[in-house]
Amino acid sequence: SPRNKILATSLLVEAFLYEEQTRRGVSIKHWQEFEDVADHCTVCHKCASPCPVKIDFGDVTMNMRNLLRKMGQKSFRPGNAAAMFMLNATNPETIKLARSAMVGIGFKAQRLAVDLFKPAGRKQTGAPPATVGTAPVKEQVIHFINKKLPGGLPKKTARALLDIEDKNYVPIIRPPEKTSADTEAVFYFPGCGSERLFSQVGLATQAMLWHAGVQTVL
Questions:
Q1: Between helices 137-144 and 108-117, what is the axis angle to 10°?
Q2: Given CA atoms 115, 120, 121, 126 in this order, what sign does their dihedral have?
Q3: What confidence tens digit (pLDDT) does each residue in 142-156 have?
Q4: What is the separation of C-alpha 47 from the centre of its chain, rounded to a whole number of angstroms?
Q5: Residue 215 — φ and ψ, nearest 5°?
Q6: Local structure of 204: helix, strand or coil
């Protein structure tokens, strides 16, 4: 829960302070625990509104992750690195190649692995262990093949399907027979995950706005 993450963070900060004051140096184990807490937040910011003391743990988490990177204590995870590479890419050809590798090959391989090895993971999936720290490799593999990744995804990103990949232009989608210069407009940001992986979600939203007679600025 957000409350537990806040308590854990405050205890770790206190541990850091104690170790620095006693000249012991910050324990590597504490950095690992610090990263574990930071990794358990999706940065949705939904905890901020009901929080009685108005702590936005999403912002706290981003600061924690930045501190880990600054101090060189951020763990390298191939999956995270590959995902961030694709989501941060801006060149259309790079995006196409990364998507082909991850979705065209990676997703298919994962779905096949689920069918092949699912019986072997029933014990773990039937009674999952506590997620404290980094799980052993065996547990990570079983978790990865526990459930199939989506299939039947569009072959291209939303921008590629709409042929608006040129970053020098700001595309505006509107039904000409229903709109004018004074028609209400919205700025639509589909999110990099939605746009790059699940482009049908963004296209469905844009279609809804089109039928509603709204100008959509992408």
A1: 110
A2: positive
A3: 888 888 888 888 888
A4: 18
A5: -80, 130
A6: helix
